[in-house]
Design goal:
The chain is mainly alpha-helical and about 300 residues long. The protein has 3 helices and no strands. It is rod-shaped, with a radius of gyration of 72 Å.
């Protein structure tokens, strides 16, 4: 009788232990699934926020590029306008320099011509003076010749007078030759000086022409700035959410299988042929506290644990 009771209690304990273990396994599995779902929601939210940030940054980058491009273009336009103003002023200054150079060159050529004319005039005056001096000297010689002839005629006649006349004429001839030679040399020197005057003017005119500026030409146009082409924008790649680690699942059926296996082993050890049967487990209240009531007639359902 006690052995039957002990076997029955052990079987009941194994069955309820299996039921409790299956229930706990199911609860743990549920908590694991909830944790997995919570982690997956977090990963989904992170991927969503990352994609929203990437898209917003993409739009901001495009906007910043356009703002910078507009700023650079406006700056280039201002610089181009400034350079065009400088170009116009440079053309004006070049034209003024050229006109001033032309005026100075023409004035210098005029001065060269006036200088040549004055030098030639002075040289002509010198030649005239030489000619006048030659004429005066010739007149003086002629006067001297007449005076000498007059004195000779007043002297004794004859051969001595004729000789004296010839001697005076010869002296006058020599003096005239010297005077004429001096005049000829002066005229030749004057011609050389005239040539030097003309050569000097030619050299001065050549220097003026060499220093003359070339007529300035119109400066080349400065190309107007243009906007750069719009770059090809690449949309950011979508970030896919990560996969949460699979929830660790415990077997719900295993505790029941083990419990019923243990109960079957306990019941199998009972000698059912003995007349001293144990308590009737089909009746209520045979187990302490009424925990297991009529479990043989009404077995516990474990359909929710498979």
């Amino acid at each position: 009788m006690p052995a039957l009771w002990a076997a029955g209690i052990g079987a009941a304990t194994s069955i309820f232990g299996g039921i409790f273990g299956a229930s706990e396994a199911d609860k743990q599995n549920q908590r694991a699934r909830e944790a997995q779902e919570a982690q997956q929601r977090l990963l989904n939210e992170q991927a969503k926020l990352q994609n929203e940030y990437n898209q917003r940054k993409f739009e901001v980058d495009k906007e910043n590029y356009r703002k910078q491009a507009d700023y650079n273009f406006e700056t280039a336009i201002k610089k181009w306008q400034y350079d065009m103003t400088l170009r116009t002023l440079q053309e004006k200054v070049d034209a003024q320099k050229y006109l001033l150079n032309v005026q100075n060159s023409n004035q210098q050529l005029t001065f060269n011509r006036i200088g040549e004319s004055q030098a030639q005039s002075r040289e002509q005056l010198a030649v005239n003076d030489a000619l006048a001096e030659n004429a005066f000297e010739r007149q003086d010689l002629l006067v001297s010749q007449l005076q000498a002839q007059g004195k000779t005629r007043l002297g004794q006649a004859g051969i001595s007078m004729a000789k004296r006349m010839q001697s005076n004429e010869a002296q006058i001839g020599r003096d005239l030759a010297v005077i004429d030679a001096s005049l000829t040399g002066e005229l030749k020197a004057s011609n050389l000086r005239m040539f030097d005057i003309q050569l000097g003017r030619y050299s001065a005119d050549a220097r003026v022409e060499a220093a003359r500026m070339l007529m300035p030409e119109r400066l080349p146009d400065i190309p107007a700035p243009t906007k750069p082409p719009e770059p090809t924008w690449l949309e950011p790649m979508k970030v896919l959410p990560g996969m949460a680690a699979p929830a660790a699942q415990q077997s719900v059926a295993m505790p029941l299988i083990q419990g019923f296996g243990s109960a079957a082993s306990s019941l199998a050890s009972i000698d059912w042929s003995s007349p001293n049967k144990g308590p009737d487990f089909t009746k209520p209240g045979i187990y302490s506290g009424g925990v297991a009531t009529n479990y043989l007639n009404n077995p516990v359902s474990v359909s929710g644990y498979y």
